[in-house]
Specification:
The complex is a heterodimer of chains A (228) and B (170). Chain A is of the alpha+beta class and 228 residues long. Chain A has helices at residues 7-24, 30-60, 63-76, 83-94, 122-125, 139-151, 194-205, and strands at residues 100-107, 128-135, 152-153, 156-164, 167-174, 209-210. Helices cover 46% and strands 16% of the residues of chain A. Chain B has helices at 14-67, 69-90, 95-100, 129-140, and strands spanning 108-115, 120-126, 145-154, 158-166. Chain B has a 4-stranded antiparallel sheet, with helices on one face. Classes of the chains: A alpha+beta (228), B alpha+beta (170).
């Protein structure tokens, strides 16, 4: 057949037209599809980089040091209300001076340790506050007691002091902070600058000490009213 | 016998001319089309492959991060407790320093009312008014606001000034 060659351009035309329609035609959304893949790839890349940085930080972290630091910080800021720790501090603060603990009153609240997943109510988060009365022979004793209390661990906060003649009433709060719920999301970023925050906190604790006395042998203190 | 006479080529028809033009153009179009399609398919395949590779790599890193969960929990606990401890320490007033500012051999502190971060009122007694004056002058160097609220004398207490102290300890 002499005109058979004409099939060739016709076939090319069909291939180009129908092939293009198949690739770019309605419902195919080639470019939208590729763009979506590009975006997804960019997102994955970003996630991968973030996770790689996180993994790098985790690999470089010193578990032993962190555990020791956390232990020290827990001594300063317990995870549960340490009423007895505060009472030890109050007893010990006056020893060695002419002052003596006369009475205390206040509320301890729930002293059980909240689990990390437990939701604590505002009332449970309330700090332990006590009003403590000391019998004082001279004002210097007040300064002495305050100095000791300020240097004790667990941390405490003097809210007010009222001194008159031979008696000082100190309103004091004991520090505590429940565990915070730790997210299980693997993509959540690590706390920023935790090392410097920990170093700052630990430096601030330098020079402070635990108040330790044998509670069983301390018979000098007269408890007039129970705080609970 | 050999015929050396040149045989005349058949005359090129109009159709031949069209064929010679259309066939190469069609070939060129086909080649360009195939190249473009192959490129576009390759481009799509590249992103699909990259997505799969990234997904797989991400999963692998996520698994490694999960294996370090103990370290992560420890880190988060440490960060939270460090922050709460530092905040707590920074929120404390130096009450001892405030009390110590009133300790003096020649001064008798009859009463002292202190509220953390707030003003304080002290009843200060001394044998002589000049001693009290010197001491109050000293306090003005330590506090931003020093105010003598009352000045009394009685046979039992002697000279007693009620002094209000405010502002941060200098």
């Amino acid at each position: 057949m002499k005109q058979a060659w004409m099939l060739y351009p016709v076939a090319v035309l069909i291939i180009v037209v129908f092939g293009s329609a198949f690739i770019f035609g309605p419902g195919q959304d080639y470019f939208v599809n590729v763009q979506a893949r590009q975006q997804k790839a960019a997102e994955l890349e970003a996630k991968k980089n973030a996770l790689s940085r996180k993994l790098d930080l985790l690999n470089r972290a010193d578990d032993v040091k962190m555990e020791n630091d956390l232990k020290t910080l827990l001594t300063a800021m317990p995870a549960k209300k340490d009423v007895w720790g505060l009472l030890v501090e109050l007893n010990q603060a006056a020893s060695g001076s002419g002052a003596s603990l006369f009475s205390y009153k206040g509320a301890g609240g729930n002293v059980s340790e909240a689990s990390e997943s437990a939701v604590t109510t505002a009332a449970e988060d309330d700090p332990i506050k006590l009003d403590v009365t000391y019998k004082i022979s001279k004002f210097e004793d007040v300064a002495y007691i305050l100095k000791n209390l300020q240097e004790y661990l667990p941390l405490n906060k003097i809210l007010s002091v009222s001194f008159e003649d031979d008696e000082a009433v100190i309103s004091i709060e004991a520090a505590w902070s429940p565990w915070e719920k730790v997210s299980g999301d693997v993509e959540e970023e690590l706390p920023n600058g935790y090392e410097s925050t920990a170093a700052t906190a630990l430096k601030q604790l330098e020079g402070l000490r635990e108040a330790n006395i044998n509670r069983d042998t301390n018979t000098e203190v007269k408890y007039v009213s129970s705080p609970f | 016998m050999i015929n050396f006479a040149v045989k005349a080529a058949p005359a090129e028809t109009e159709e031949d001319k069209i064929r010679k033009l259309v066939v190469p153009i069609s070939t060129a179009v086909l080649v360009i089309y195939l190249v473009v399609v192959a490129g576009l398919m390759g481009w799509k395949w590249y992103w699909s492959d990259k997505e799969e590779a990234d997904q797989s790599s991400l999963q692998e890193i996520a698994t490694q991060v999960e294996q370090k969960s103990k370290t992560e929990i420890l880190m988060r606990k440490l960060a939270a407790r460090s922050q709460s401890t530092a905040d707590y320490i920074n929120s404390r007033a130096s009450v001892y320093e405030a009390a110590q500012n009133l300790v003096d051999d020649k001064i008798r502190v009859k009463s002292w009312n202190y509220t953390a971060m707030n003003t304080q009122v002290a009843e200060l007694g001394a044998e002589d008014t000049s001693i009290l004056k010197d001491f109050v002058d000293l306090l003005t160097k330590k506090y931003q606001n020093v105010q003598i609220n009352q000045a009394n004398w009685s046979p039992t207490d002697g000279w007693v000034n009620t002094v209000g102290l405010g502002g941060k300890v200098r």
